[in-house]
Structures are given as C-alpha cells and as structure tokens.
Description:
- The structure is a single chain.
- The protein is of the alpha+beta class.
- It has one domain.
- 39% of the residues lie in helices and 12% in strands.
- It has 6 helices and 4 strands; from the N terminus they run H-E-H-H-E-H-E-E-H-H.
- The strands form 2 sheets. Strands 1-2 form a two-stranded parallel ribbon.
- The chain is globular and about 50 Å long.
- The two termini are 33 Å apart.
Amino acid sequence: CFFAFSARLEDLRVKLENEGLVNISYVVVNHQGAYSQRKFHLLKESVSDYITVYQQDEQQADVWTTLNGSKDDFLIYDRCGRLVYHLGLPYSFLSFQYVEESIKIAYCESKCGNCSYTGPGIDGVCENITRSADEKLAELELKPSGHHSHHHHGQGQGHRHRHHH
C-alpha cells in the first residue's frame, strides 16, 4: 500500500532534516504498468511537496530495468551523483533502519576528499550522527543478553551493496 510507504518516507525525510541532513532529494518512481499509471494521482497526493513523484511514460525504457533494480528498491546516490547503495527487499522496508543508515553514510562520507557540494555545518551534523551511533552501540554492548546476538556492524554485510562509479 503506497499510503503507508508514503507516510513512512515522509517521516524519514522529516527525521533526517531535523537531524540536520538537508538538501537531500527524494524521488519516487511510479511503476510503468497501466494500474500504476491510473493510480499516479493518488500516489502524488500521498507524498509531501518535498518528495518528487516521477511518472514513467509507457513508451520509454523502464527506469527500473535501466538501473538494474526493482520497483521496491532504494537507490541512494551521493551528492556527486554516484550510486552508493542499492537496497532491495527486505532491506528496503522503511520499518527497518537500513535505508536511514545508508542515507546517513552517503551523506557524511567524504570518499573523494574536499567537496564543493558540501555545505557549511555538515561536519557538526555528521559528528553528532556518529556520536549518537557510537552511544547506541555502547548501550547495546553493555546490556547482558541470554542469547547470542546476530546484530552486524560496519561494512560488507549482505544488505549493504556498495557501488563505485
């Protein structure tokens, strides 16, 4: 149901903006099928003006095929337009933290050194995000548990697909 998705995406957008992650573009790509085409206006009305809804033309090449993705995927690009993460199901469910964490990493990483697209104050925002993540990790490690945890940290997990172009 795209209404639940739209509400969760808007909640995520607002949360990230409140944490100082600004100037992020959000684009929802509507499926090419006839049913999705008929429901386009409902999808567009279900998101805020801060989220763009792109309607594919039936005659054009399918965006998802071109991007090697599926309709439920999240493609996360850095400020230079490079694909950083491609998250598919189930990692694209907004009820999990994968999309949020991937956006934060793409926002804060400086893979290429100094960047002319980086605005003032980004270092402070990213330090706060890192500090908050470190505090959560320390809190988890301090809590004794009666069972083995399968919580993973860092890079290289199956849900984080890094693409460098």
